[in-house]
Structure formats: C-alpha cells, structure tokens
Predict the 3D structure of the following.
Amino acid sequence: YDTAYTGATTDVAAQALFENGSGDCVARAAGFCLMARALGYDCKVVVGQVPYTNGTLAEHGWTEISANGGTYVCDPDYEWDTKNSGYMITYGQSGTWVYQNNTYYPE
C-alpha cells in the first residue's frame, strides 16, 4: 500500500499502473476496476486492512464488484500471494483473507 496514491482517484492510480507497468495493491485494484467497468461491471476500489503473515494488520487495496445480486472481492494481490483464486470471492469466505476496516477509494 503506497501512500503516494493517498487522495488520488481510481483513474489516477490506474493510470500510474498502466504507464509504469507496475504498482502497489491500490494501483492493481484500480487497473482491474477500470477494466471490469469497461466490461460493464459495477465496481469500486476499496482500501482497508488484511491480516499480515506476522499477525499484524496490513493496509491493502482491492476491487469490489456487485453482480448477480451479490458483492464480490476481486483481489489480484490475493492470487499472487496465496496462489489461490482472488476473483469473485465473498467477504468472509472460508480460506480467504479477512478484509476489514473498509472504505471506498475516491472515484
């Protein structure tokens, strides 16, 4: 979670990802969010915290998609870190991260 994006919008964070070819969890979530919107999904970037390997909470960003009457997490970092699917998982789903202290990222 790079504080350089603090106060930025989803578009700005995604632009940084696309221009630099890399970025932190917020930039990756923003890039995913913009691509999902282009496909017609209703989605937002969320920032909050997830449990870190040492037992503390780590700042994190992910994409939240509303589809088929439900709310789903799409998290490219979860997939990278765990080698398990981080797409269309639900909050509290067994075997996934505990996403908490969530706020929506500025549009």
Observations:
- The beta strands are 42-51, 57-67, 70-74, 100-104.
- The chain has a mean pLDDT of 87.
- The CA atoms of residues 40 and 80 lie 25 Å apart.
- The chain is about 30% helix and 30% strand.
